[in-house]
């Protein structure tokens, strides 16, 4: 249904929004926010990576 109408499905929308949020947080001048996403053992980064791998 979504492919026929050339519209993103729910999973694609969630992945794109999470990627957009991650990019905006990493580019933020706020040092606390950028520190949360720069650490590879961060739970937030782990969740975002899990969304894109599965």
DSSP E strands, number: 0
Overall pLDDT level: 78
The poorly predicted ranges are none
Classify the secondary structure makeup into a structural class. mainly alpha
Overall shape: elongated
In whole angstroms, the N-to-C terminal distance is 22 Å
Order of helices and strands: HHH
How helix-rich are the residues, as a percent range? 55-70%
Number of domains: 1
- Which band does the percent of strand residues land in? under 5%
Total DSSP helices? 3
Sheet having the most strands: none
- Rg from alpha-carbon coordinates: 14 Å
Characteristics:
54 residues; mainly alpha; 3 helices
Description:
- By secondary structure, the chain is mainly alpha-helical.
- It has one domain (10-53).
- 67% of the residues lie in helices and 0% in strands.
- The chain has helices at residues 10-26, 31-38, 43-53.
- Helix 1 (10-26) runs antiparallel to helix 3 (43-53).
- It is elongated and about 45 Å long.
- The mean pLDDT is 78.
